[in-house]
Fold this sequence. Notes:
The chain is mainly β. It has strands at residues 19-25, 30-35, 40-45, 50-55, 60-65, 71-75, 79-82, 91-94, 103-110, 116-122, 132-137, 142-149, 152-157, 164-168, 175-176.
Amino acid sequence: MGVAVDCVLRIRTGGGPKGECPVWSPEEEVLYWVDIDGGTLHRFEPTTGRDSVCELGEPAGCVGLAAAGGFILGLRSGICRLNHFAGGKPRLVAAPEADRLGNRCNDGRCDPWGRFWVGTMLDPAVADRRTGALYCFDGRECRRVVDDMHVVNGLAFSPDRRTMYYSDSYTTVRTIW
């Protein structure tokens, strides 16, 4: 038996947005998500159908809700903080791949303890260049945890908080760990 799915937001731009990293804010009852190529953070209000946009100024791979308010973002330049959705400019807090030209942050998630995990990739990905990695940012230090990846994607945590899942979604890999 199939499940009925309704489209709640139709977004069309030039080449079409690459929507990534949906994050639900229970306090606001809104959904945040990023458009990679558009370099934007979106705020979707299901009760009104309104989608607001915050320009970030560079490609955006992921977003997380910061415990102190505002957002933590994985952008092309690295890990950034954004204090307010309406106005303000992202502030770089860690540049884990300043030495890997052509790489950008891709998917990411906050873990149950408030650390921000972010994966990277060469953009565009190339079969013989595994320059992506998985990083953990605790608010002060950013450390590389897994290396030799193509496209880090699909970060998630088990309900019991004992397991983290991540994948490499490159076409020849497509593996979940």
